[in-house]
Amino acid sequence: MKAPRVTLDQWRTLQAVVDHGGFAQAAEALHRSQSSVSYTVARMQDQLGVPLLRIDGRKAVLTEAGGVLLRRSRQLVKQAAQLEDLAHHMEQGWEAEVRLVVDAAYPNTRLVRALTEFMPQSRGCRVRLREEVLSGVEEVLQEGVADVAISGFSIPGYLGTEMSAVEFVAVAQPEHALHRLNRPLNFQDLESQLQVVIRDSGRSQPRDVGWLGAEQRWTVGSLATAATFVGNGLGFAWLPRHLIVRELAEGVLKALPMEQGGSRHPTFYLYANKDKPMGPATQILIDLLRKFDVAPLHELPPTLPLHVVEPA
């Protein structure tokens, strides 16, 4: 079998030129000189015998042949990286880190219990936790920067494990105009009021889940901020019941008396990175997440807001 004339490093260099928009930008990203990057790509074209790039103004643009070869090369480089990861895992026998991305609406009480039980079994494996909203979880998983993900969506191309549902309740401050109507509410009543919605952290295709299409809409960055706004009389919102238990009990928030749709119960799903071999630490964490997902929330101790858990 004839040995390849083009190295993986050369393919990575070409990818960097295209992805970063030019030779200078690729050189900066790769921590190399621009002349080195230019020479590498020129050498590739000589070795392959086909032009890969053409200069359009000040920008390097892929030729038709370059586009075809670049697409194929991405899979090649990806597989080489996976092979190196596999060798590393076989040598070490244990992951150094597990990257977990979770929808911010998922009960962090369950996460804390799972991570607490995981710690004595982790053999020093770090957990890097990242919170996203709505399609942000899907985006992070598809980008390959998460090993495990918990999302409120069924993600195309992934086989997820069904987990529990999270109840979202339509709420407003007790003195809000909607409560003063003193009757069951319909969607027309809500459309005339200010709705507070949570910003989707996904960049490519953000979604407006739960928005009624009302003109009066405020978008905030977190569920906690939404609860604060609504608790101070600024509109209404659908919020996870587990996050507002105290506010409901103390009368800061009150469920809206909807004719229908006053509560929603989206099912959450657990996903693993399908492009990365699963190590023993990841499998243990997945098992623990599933174990504590079925525990009733009232049987779990309250926790503080969870951001990043990264043992030394």
Question: How far apart are the first and last residues' alpha carbons, in Å?
Answer: 47 Å
Provide the succession of SSEs. HHHEEHEHEHEEEHHEEHEHEEEH
Would you identify the regions where 5 or more consecutive residues have pLDDT less than 50? 302-312
The structural class is alpha/beta
Query: What is the CATH topology classification name of the largest domain?
Result: D-Maltodextrin-Binding Protein, domain 2
Q: Walk across the major sheet and give the strand order.
A: 4-3-5-13-6
Query: How would a crystallographer describe the biggest sheet?
Result: 5 strands, mixed
* SS summary, helix count: 11
CATH architecture of the largest domain: 3-Layer(aba) Sandwich
Task: State the CATH class of the largest domain.
Answer: Alpha Beta
Number of domains: 3
Work out the helicity level. Answer: 25-40%
- Radius of gyration over all CA atoms, rounded: 25 Å
Task: Tell how many strands the DSSP assignment holds.
Answer: 13
By CATH, the superfamily of the largest domain comes out as Periplasmic binding protein-like II
Please provide a written account of the structure.
By secondary structure, this protein is an alpha/beta fold. It folds into 3 domains: 8-91, Winged helix-like DNA-binding domain superfamily/Winged helix DNA-binding domain (Arc Repressor Mutant, subunit A, Orthogonal Bundle); 93-165 and 267-299, Periplasmic binding protein-like II (D-Maltodextrin-Binding Protein, domain 2), CATH 3.40.190; 168-264, D-Maltodextrin-Binding Protein, domain 2, CATH 3.40.190. 39% of the residues lie in helices and 19% in strands. The strands form 4 sheets. A 5-stranded mixed sheet has the order 4-3-5-13-6. Strands 7, 10, 11 and 12 form a 4-stranded antiparallel sheet that branches. α5 crosses α11. The radius of gyration is 25 Å and the shape is elongated. The relative contact order is 0.15. Mean pLDDT is 85; it is low at 302-312.
